[in-house]
Amino acid sequence: MFLSPLISVVIKKAADSLTEQFCRMRGLDKNRRKLHWQLEAIQQKIADAEERGEELWLKELEAAAYAAVDVLDEFQYEALRQNAISQQPGSSVKAIKSFFTHENPAIFRYNMGNKLAKVLEKIDEIVTEMNKFNFAARGPAPSIKRETHSLVIESEVIGRDGEKEKIVREVLDPQRKRDNISVLVIVGIGGLGKTTLAQLVYNDERVKAHFELLLWVCVSSDFDTVNISKSILEVATNGGGVSTSNMEVLQSRLRGILDMKRYLLVLDDVWNEESDKWDDLKTILFSGASSGSVIIVTTRSKRAASIMGTLRSHDLASLTDKDSWKLFKKRAFGAGVKEPTDELRIIGKTIACKCVGLPLALKAVGNMLRTKTEVHEWRAILESNILDGLRSTGNVLPVLKLSYDNLPLHTKQCFAFCAIFPQDYAIERDTLIQLWMANDFIPTVGSIENLEDKARDIFYELYWGSFFQDIKEEETNYGSTIKCKMHDLMHDLATQIAGNKCSNEQELKNPSIVPKEVHHLLKLSVEGPPKLNNVLKKFPTIRTYLVRDNVFEHPLEEKSSSLLKSCSLRALRFRIQYPPKELGYMKHIRYLDFSGGILKTLPETISTLYNLQTLILSHTGICALPTQMRNMVNLRHLFLDGCRFLKHMPIGLGQLKFLQTLTKYAVDSDKGGSIKELENLILCGHVTLSGLDNVKDREDVETANLTAKTNLSSLELEWGPANKKKTRNYEAVLEALVPHNEIKYLAINGYSGSDFPKWMKETFIIRNLKRLRLQNCINCVELPPLWKLPLLENLNLEKLESLVHIVLRTCEQVVGSKSKIIFPALKILEVRALPNLESWHEELSELVGFPKLNELIIDSCPKLLSVPVHAPILCKLEIRNNCDCFFSYRPTKVLALELWKSFIALKTLAIINSDALVFWPMEEFRSLKCLKLLAVTSCINFTGSLQESSLPTSCMEGPLPQLESLFIWDCQELVEVHVCSKSLKDLTIKGCPKISQEGLAELTNLTELIWLEFYNCTKLRTWPENMEHLPSLRYLRISCCPGIESFPESVQQCLPSLQSLVILDCPALWRRCKSGGDYFHLVSPIPDRVIEIEESD
């Protein structure tokens, strides 16, 4: 229970000046004051009542306190409503009043007086019982401010170097290359550091270089083959969603990904002790796995280790006393401070020994003692029997509970709330903070303007105390977001503390049985037609209800007004299509998330949610916002990113003094959405300013004062459709849109001026940029000196139709520079639809250096004659749409060959829709010694033949010696393929109707080939003779190739060992492979088999 912080919230609400003034005017102030002093008296007795275990009394007090919160919130809400009415014109007053039934002050006083009287009656009973129990009064525990800190990286791991090296050597053992797949299990009790050790191995640079694919999946208690398979696919596809639960489909997709690579898979926190379940998953993971693949498993169960391991289990030992003291000392005394006193050192070493080498316990106890400086405080911990239990039971939860008990009261409830999330859930920091605030968990001492700062302090306090871990900053389309996770033991602790108050369906043994008294509920999806009414009826005390996936078409049944009026919801998330006006009855709501749905409009009644703090409409079809949003005086976060149909804003948003997140502002001066509204807003994070072509005067932009908004990290500036007609207004507006000099992301789209502003040319303002996107700036002839920017990592130039050079000869920085390094930090460069771009530099192309460039995309640049010469680590190149300079068969061919010599480190090459590609670029490819993946798509003139001037080749001297994957799609003229890489593992030829078996003659010695696919290659009349010996083949797909009527004998021998065989619309092969055919006995053992033919009418 969290009664003390809850009672504190009620006391503060009862003392709120707005509530006090309103109650006095309504003749209810006497009862308000009585409630206030009674609760102050009760608060002093709570600690003794909890210690004595008077659960019934405490539960009654909790229920009464929540009822009091709701009543006091209603007083405040009504005061805000009356204030909104007083400031509106007559028509608006009528509209607002018509929505409510209690506008009569006498009726309101009567109804609310009864509610407050009932609360006081219950409080009187509680006080009477309290006096009978004779509880002792205690003052509040002192709150000690922990030392401040910024975002920190995971602490240096102590005492695991030797074990890490041992596992790394075993994983990289050359013997593994001869094994099909190995399973190494790390086993040990909870809190010993199994996950941390696995992370050390997983992130070792030698391991990263050795394995082609690294995957990490947290399994936890739910060992379900379908869910694990989906998790692996999601990780392997970089977060791509997996909607199906069909095991056959999942198996096919999983094998297609894993069997093409030597992979390392970590299955973290496995609890399963049923061999059948492991056998089901093993069948998928082991089948056709590339030699040398390794699975690392972490588990507390030795039985699970014996079931899963193929190698000897690694029994993780406890830390030595020496390492235990090092870790404890680092946590208890911090780094870089003076040594502890002799007395504290002696006690500390004894405490460290009692933690029996468990890193989690050492960190928890060390963190707790960091704020305690008195010897008697340390000695009390030493002499407690909690530490003694570690040695006898190995149960670390009591130690973690001890650390939890020493948290401030408000931090305790913030931590316990996290039980709403499933295990291993990636918790987004800002979302968590907004949910804390919605539930009044953040104490309001003084001004409420800095609530988010206080909440962030709590977040990092929990991280610093090891309640959170694995903090990561992830890039998004609009800057970055911070996420964290909880150790499974910490999650167990939060669940234990929260009891029935927090729940998530994923971890309930029976998700349909959610406790009725739940306050906070997270559901990943809802079966059947979801109705909010049903939720409110089933869980009358619910305060947080978050649904992740479902779309509510009509979320309410008829006659739902009374339910919404009486509900206590503070936070609600679901996708919605038609939000009803009745949502305006949710007077207590603070957090409302409709993101990701197909919502187009919001009812005007949303603007009567005067307590709302966070409104999330991201990536919806919203066209307009409620006109009276200026009345939502508590609104702090309005998310509108991805709302591309939103063209104007309601008048008066600038009056919302607490508004700090506004991710999009659509300027439309004619309809009232003037950019001047931004003047007094202290915006944070990201903002997109769209409709800038509607700005009338430069003075309006200067009034908005972007320079003063120092908490903005990301800024996007959008005009309407680009206009060839140059307008001075555009240039004046952009000149006035000066951000502060700490901006990290900048995008400019649709700017029709002919020149960029002075603040970009002088680069001081944009010196800290990491990402820059310039798009549809069709009249700009010159770029600012972007090559000077020391931190720029990502540059995107698109549809700059007048641009000829990226770096200018006239720039002193280049001409006078002693160093040839420009773009010193650039990692990703995209140039798209630049029809007049000729070169990277106007004259001195040898100075154009990209020392960190990793990825280059060139799209629709027909006049380009050069590429970055000095790009020593360029790994990925994508060429799209008529970039003729790369493939020239005219006198400029020598120039084209010189370009390719710049790509010696290239690993991935994609050539898409290039009309200039005709012949197989044998000479061009000779420098690509490191290339692993080549994709050629939709090149309508590509024949694949050798040019007459090309030297004859053989497999001994051919280019692309390390090529592993070759994809050729939709090349209608292809007749030959000239690749003879013995390392080829994946070959796909699709939509190439002119390729014949003779054209594949050079594809020999494919002993490493795993995947082979032919699709719509109608001229293939028989199986290519040179492709008969394929000992590693696991996946074979032949579609719409009717000329292939049989397999040679050597391929027939491979069939039973295939993991997947797909034959579609190949009549002769279909007859041979179907039941009764001469190949049926060969293909019937294949687990994933699809053999079909389209039936004729």
From TrEMBL:
InterPro entries documented for this protein: Apaf_helical, Leu-rich_rpt_Cys-con_subtyp, LRR_dom_sf, LRR_R13L1-DRL21, NB-ARC, P-loop_NTPase, Rx_N, WH-like_DNA-bd_sf
Pfam families per the UniProt record, alphabetical: LRR_R13L1-DRL21 (PF25019), NB-ARC (PF00931), Rx_N (PF18052), WHD_DRP (PF23559)
Cross-referenced SUPFAM superfamilies: L domain-like, P-loop containing nucleoside triphosphate hydrolases
GO biological process: defense response to bacterium; innate immune response-activating signaling pathway; plant-type hypersensitive response
Superkingdom of origin organism: Eukaryota
Stretches assigned to the R13L1/DRL21-like LRR repeat region domain: 675-799
Domain NB-ARC: 165-334
GO molecular function, one term: ADP binding
Calcium among keywords: no
Stretches assigned to the Disease resistance protein winged helix domain: 420-494
Keywords in alphabetical order: ATP-binding, Leucine-rich repeat, Nucleotide-binding, Plant defense, Repeat
Domain Disease resistance N-terminal, first and last residues per copy: 7-88
Family in the record: Belongs to the disease resistance NB-LRR family.
PANTHER family per UniProt: OS11G0492900 PROTEIN, PLANT BROAD-SPECTRUM MILDEW RESISTANCE PROTEIN RPW8
Protein name (record): NBS-LRR-like resistance protein
